[in-house]
Amino acid sequence: MLEGHITGELLSAEYRAENGWFYQLWRQLHGYTSPLFFTISGLVFSYLLTKEQWGIAFWKNPRIKKGLKRVLELLIWGYLLQLHLRNFVVCQWEGSSFNTDWLMAFHVLQSIAVALFLLMFVYAISAVIRIPFYIMAAVGAVIIFGLNGIQETYIREQKALLASGVIQQMAYWPMHAPRLIQNMFFGMYSEFAFLRFSGYALFGGALGHFIRINQRHVLSFTFGFTLFALGYVLKRDVYFLLEWIDLQLMDWGIQSHANQMANKDSLIGLSMVLCLLGLLVILNRLVKIPNGLFLKMGQNTFPIYIIHVVVIYEGLFGIGLPLESYKDLLTPGESWAISIFIVSWFFVLIAYWERIQGIWTIWKQRIVSYLR
Prior knowledge:
Elements: H1 2-10, H2 21-31, H3 33-49, H4 62-80, H5 85-94, H6 108-129, H7 133-164, H8 179-185, H9 194-213, H10 221-251, H11 264-286, H12 292-299, H13 301-313, H14 332-351, H15 353-371
Helix pairs in contact: 1-14, 3-6, 3-9, 4-6, 6-7, 6-9, 7-9, 10-11
């Protein structure tokens, strides 16, 4: 994620050749980071969520309260990071209007928040009707992907009408809803619309619970090869699978158009995630992977994301590294060198993260006691 965002900001336009195989490979691999991120988020969250004994009351599960708190934190930080305080101050100083379009955007943190909330909702349903959570989460993932197919078909139709000049502007959905709501589905800034990515988190949730109840077997070669094989078959046969699903849904009268074919890219992303997870399981059996600093990086993805948005994209304060100013001056090698340096800086930051948290806690206590 970090490398892709930093290199994406720095790489000069002349090296973004559509026919360049290396750039296309980098771009494609970078495109799989979001499906992987959402799948892993759902996997880890559900693995922890189902730690408690099955049958425990919903509200007595400590992970529910922690999960709801995390959902609230993700939503607050998601919208805070879209605030550009420097521009806001300048607009107030000059007496001009402050554009709030981007402030209403629905981006990564908001989408993860909704995905985690859906996982807890599915967990509650599974507890009530006594069906294993991994089955309900898998069913939920299928439903979300199905709804995404309908949404993606509508979006493509709107873009085609706009490109052909039939319409002057796209009809965002839900129509006449506030921008904040529209961006959750299809709006001006809805790249991370929750229907587009929650399916990955729900699938990850199903996998997380399956791992929880089969811990003795999941780190085996068999499990690794099974994941890889499932990913390979899905990647190979995704077109035929979606064509068959569309035909069945139209025969049953559930849909009137071949909507599910719009899910092709989404399922290819899922197939690559399965292949990668399978390879990681196999690699873990063959080589002992050091888990010290890398584990810390994984455990602190939330603060890493917040800091990288502030530093790279000038989120919240409107002050950060002026990376985009150099994008027309740097070669791919120079872009990647800077990217590696900044990523290394994040590793150093996380290595001392506990100390930083300790210092912040002390100062926070001093400030609170002073205000009292």
